[in-house]
Structures are given as C-alpha cells and as structure tokens.
Amino acid sequence: MSGKRYPEEFKIEAVKQVTEKGYSIAEVATRLGTTTHSLYAWIERYDQGQSKATKDKDSSVELARLKKRSFYRYLTHYHCYKYSINSLSILFFRFLW
C-alpha cells in the first residue's frame, strides 16, 4: 500500500535543504513529516537529473569543439590541394612569416 503523496515542489525543497543548506537527512525528514527512505530516494533522483544535465552540457561543448576542429582541418587540406602544397608544414611555415 502506498503512503502519502507529496508535490514535486515539496520534494525539491526537501532535497535542497539537505544538499544546499547542509541539514541532515534525519532532521529534514522529521521536520517535514516524511521518512528518511523517501528523502534518500528524492535525493538520488534529483542528483541523477543534475548529473544528466551536466553531462548533456559537456557533450554539447565537446561536439562544438570537434565540429570546429573538423572545419579547420577541411580548410587546411582544401588550401593545400588548391595551391598544390605537398606538406602541411610548408603551409604553416608560410603563415608564420
């Protein structure tokens, strides 16, 4: 049989009291009238959501970096072909002077 249902805002606030404000799980659970088991489950769910958002952000930054790298490689090889440059080192040497 399931217990009492809590709104999502209530759960998020309870998790913030533990993770951001530093209260103990037992203290928050007692004060809010929930079980420590429920609070642990909410914290786990909240942390998984946070890590997924961070992971998505990291992967989009990495994807942008790889796209830029690929584009620069394409331009470099294109110019080598266009101007009949046999070695990339010659191309870079000329840009330095």
From TrEMBL:
Alphabetical list of Pfam families matching this protein: HTH_Tnp_1
MF term (GO), any: transposase activity
Residue intervals passing through the bilayer: none
Gene Ontology biological process terms from the UniProt entry: DNA transposition
InterPro entries the record matches: Homeodomain-like_sf (IPR009057), Transposase_8 (IPR002514)
UniProt similarity note: Belongs to the transposase 8 family.
Protein name in the entry: Transposase
